[in-house]
Each structure stands twice: as structure tokens, then as C-alpha cells.
Amino acid sequence: MTFYQFAIRILQFIFRLFNGKSYVIGLENLPQDDTYILAATHRSYLDPFYIVINLFPEEFSFMAKESLFNNFILNKLLRKAYVFPVNREKPSPKTIKHGVKQMTENQLNLGIFPSGSRYSTQVKSGTAFIQRLSKKAIVPVAIQPPLTTGHFFQRKKAKIAIGEPIIYDESANYDKAKLAEIDHQIAQAFDNLDQQLDPSYHYIPPTKK
């Protein structure tokens, strides 16, 4: 058993004990024969955990903000769990290539939060560019998590909807217009998936502290 697999088992136990079982729809939309880019909404610091515990045994490599890697011990643990640092304002070519390598060589799915921050609802560019380099499908995912620690321990159930993949089009010219079109598809998928989970749902970003 790898460190990643061991950590997921522990997280599954903790989340089921204190928060209960998540509501998940659309698992059939996950590609079965290849790795993929999972593009998810970002509304809680717990979002990556909800993804990895509910989609296991699928394994993911996530980008995370650079500041998390300043602590020596946390740095080691994150890297063992396939998490790697990124400058969210200006991702370097090296970081993007590493994300592509995780899919093409290490056979890990790549987890991305296109809004960058959980305080934002805007889909930023970058995910489509990674698709251009990797030629992998993008799987949009909407997460409606408990937004506070209190809600988590009150067992407010997380809801997760997995959408149909946005397939890499080998015949397309992935120019600026095409990349923008894909970003729009991701944003539209998020809205549609939120509606599937809860037609009355409206995410209001918390005040940044």
C-alpha cells in the first residue's frame, strides 16, 4: 500500500465519522481507459479531500498554492501525496509541464481548481492550455460542500456532481479563441451541475480574511 492509498483510507474514515457519506452523481462520466484533467469548483478548503475520498481508487495529483510548501514537514507530506506547488497568479511553464507529466508518465489524474481561489467564482485560463499539451479529457465537477467547520461537524452533507468530459479535439486548432471557448464550457458545466444538485443553490464567496 502506498502512502497515498494509506492516507485516503484514513481520510475516508475521518470524513465518514464526522461528516457522513457524501452525495455523488455522475461517476459513470469518469473516463475508464485513460487519465484525465478533473476541473472542479473551489468553495471550501476541504474540496480536494472530498474529491479524493469519493473517487478512490482513482488517484489524483493536485496543484496547491506555494505557501503550503514553506513548512518542511508539510512539504514532505504533500509531495508524497502527489501534491505539487504552483504560483496561482502566474503558473510557470515548469509547473504546467509537471502537471502534464503526472498524467502522461505517472498515470495520475490531474486535479485543478480553475477559479484558483475559493474566494473567486471566475474560471481563469490555464486548464484548456493543459489539455492542449496533454491531449487529455477535461472532466468538470461541481462540489457543494459544507462551507464552515460547524457545518462539517453538524454533518451537513457534501454534494458532488461529475459532468460529461470535454474531449480533446485532435482536429481543432487550440488557439486563443479555442482555449477561451473551452474555459467557457467549463464555467457553463459548473452552472449546469450545480443546478442538477440543487436548483436553488447559489454560492456566495465568504469574506476573505
TrEMBL record:
Keywords, alphabetical: Acyltransferase, Transferase
Protein's UniProt keywords contain Transferase: yes
InterPro entries: Plipid/glycerol_acylTrfase
Domain Phospholipid/glycerol acyltransferase: start-end pairs: 36-146
Keyword match Lyase: no
GO molecular function: acyltransferase activity
Name by which UniProt lists this protein: 1-acyl-sn-glycerol-3-phosphate acyltransferase
Organism field: Facklamia lactis
